């Protein structure tokens, strides 16, 4: 490190449930909401939160508090953001249904975009891969 330069900032640490929510928002193409969530949970600046969201779009997973042996922040236990929720398909045993069954239910109910977002959120596939997967389902 050169004299006068500042050390790099520590990585932004996110709990597992926040990582999942950010990935869901990014898969649903709601990047601004994902950045707002990162800022709310971590207290980081706009640039840092945007850089993290960009990196997560590219496949990066930020460290969790357990990896740093750091106790979670108090607001982690009671998140102030809504938890992701997909409407339940109209058939019984929805909680035990496979991803393919749930995606088919969204597609068959006339909401293929929700089906693609569900596939993306649960598999990490790209939008195009998710759409192909949905097209192959019988």
TrEMBL record:
Annotated ranges, domain Large ribosomal subunit protein bL12 C-terminal: 28-56
Composition bias type Pro residues, residue spans: 81-90
Domain of life from the UniProt record: Bacteria
Gene3D superfamilies linked to this entry: 3.30.1390.10
Chain spans, region Disordered: 56-111
Start-end of Basic and acidic residues biased regions: 101-111
Bias (Low complexity) ranges: 91-100
Name recorded for this polypeptide: Large ribosomal subunit protein bL12 C-terminal domain-containing protein
The species this protein was found in: Actinocorallia longicatena
